[in-house]
Amino acid sequence: MVANVPRVTQAATTDTRTRAAKLSLPTLTTMVVGSMVGAGVFSLPRRFAQETGVAGALIAWAVAGTGMLMLAFVFQTLAVRRPDLDAGVYAYAKAGFGEYLGFFAAFGYWASACVGNVTYWVLIMSTIGTIAPSLGEGDTVLAVVLSSAGLWLFFLLISRGVKEAAAINRIVTVAKVVPILVFVVLALFYLKPHVFAENFGGADYAGSLFQQVKGTMLATVFVFLGVEGASVYSRHARRREDVGRATVLGFLSVFAVFASVTIVSYGLMPMGEIAELRQPSMAGVLEHAVGTWGKVFVSVGLIVSVLGAYLAWTLMAAEVLFVAAKDDDMPRFLKKSTPADVPVPALVMTTLLSQVVLVVTYFSDDAFNFALDLTSSLTLIPFLLAAGFAVRIALAQTRSGRGELVVAVLATVYTAFLIYAAGFKYLLVSFIIYAPATFLFVKARREQGRSPFSAREPVILAVSVAGAVVGVVALAAGWISL
Q1: How much is the pLDDT for 164?
Q2: 343 preceded by cis ω (within 30°)?
Q3: What whole-number distance in Å separates Cα of residue 253 and Cα of residue 299?
Q4: Helix, strand or coil for residue 238?
Q5: Which residues make beta-bridge pairs with 237?
Q6: How many Å apart are CA 135 and CA 51, to the nearest integer?
Q7: How many whole angstroms separate alpha carbon 278 and alpha carbon 290?
Q8: What is the pLDDT of residue 228?
Q9: pTM (2 d.p.)
Q10: pLDDT digits over 99-138, tens only?
Q11: How far is CA 121 from CA 137, 194, 454, in A?
């Protein structure tokens, strides 16, 4: 977003907001779609086939679609009810539950974006690795080096300005949706009714129907991450009501695509074979149906899709750190931006964390799937806090708030169920990441000459530290593993 003057202080925010070029409804919608359509959709056939059959998949998408739609409505409502709040998830958590939990929401959302960005590069290298064995499954030294080069090339691109990056994202979004739609059409054409029928009830290893549905929940969370994308960029919107409209329009479009990709795959191959495919499994499914060209077609679409998603998520991650710093909930060095409205220190910190996690993947046995699930689990607490804030807003309304209250409660219940479905393992690992981040919060408070914690915040600190300690012990004792 190009601004006429630098914005480095809170006092300049209003002036800059009025001068900066603004994002339109189509651009905001494509940013939502671009944020959600990334690596996840290309991995859906295998992820679902490992957990459930057609029946379980239909129920899972019904649950996930309804729950995420409620969250989309929550972000739409909050954008209208509280137009004074910028950066979506973080701002809502802070307004509803205080500065410390708001800080956790900002940090968790940011960290999840950084972890998710690493999975994009791993998947790109794994895809190219089918023709260049030296890249392996994205976990070789060469793959890490090339991925690192990609990280910093995108850093240079984004540092030129948000407006230019958003324009590129709009073009990329259109380009990456086309191969996914072609996959769905071809899969329907080659669909084998008897194979679809055999996959309907699921395999013996899938367990009860409830367990099958529960096992897919983190996969659905990952592919829907980005539904809040327009809310994160609310300060850039041309019209405030466009934020909510873009959220709902983007969600409905992507939901139809994701569910279709999953269900049609069951009509091409036995689910046991789909479960064993190399990622991106969508490429393997189409190759089985139409031959090698199908695999190449999907692989090219994946690379375009993932690069677009990486761009969108890097923008959103830096934006969250920047706005949190403007509100004095992050150290002040993160509130600096260039005349082109680029929060470079926040962008540097985002790229650095992605770089560190990328190096760690070299030493991990199953970094890709673990990173996917960790990305999902890290966002659940920020989503839960945003939904809880919507409940508080609805309760404060008169009769007009009854419908909003129902939506907010459903969104809150759904998000709480996701935390349960994620399991104890990912909750503990999330605590391990959240607890040390408190040092940034303390630093920000000291820069303002304030005491580190208010009256109730030490309780939150104690819970997070206790969870982190239990998580470290569990990892050391082998009770959970990465």
Answers
A1: 52
A2: no
A3: 22
A4: coil
A5: 23
A6: 28
A7: 17
A8: 61
A9: 0.74
A10: 888 888 888 888 888 888 888 888 888 888 777 788 877 7
A11: 11, 37, 41
